[in-house]
Amino acid sequence: MGARNRLTRQFLNALADDFEEHGKEAIVEAREKDPMGYVKAIGALMPKQVEQAQPLDDLTDAELIAGIALLRSRLADKAGAGMGASPELQ
Length: 90
What we know:
The chain is built from three helices and no strands. By secondary structure, it is mostly helical. The chain has two domains: 1-51; 53-85.
C-alpha cells in the first residue's frame, strides 16, 4: 500500500475519532466560523471521479432477451388487471 493511501486512511481514522469526540457541534462551529473552509473541506472529501456502472454490460444477449420478455409479460399482466399495480412489480 502506498504512502498516500496510508496517509489518507490515517487521516480519515483521525477525523472519525475527532467526530466521535466532538460530534456535530464541531461541524456547526466550523461552518459558522469559516464557511469557505467548510465548503472546501466538503469538496476535498468528495470523489474526484465518479465511475458509471453499466450493469447490463455483463449480461448475454439471451439474458437480455429473457429479461425483456419477462418485463413485457408483467406489463401485459398489469394492463390486463386494470390500473392497479401488479403485486410482482411492487
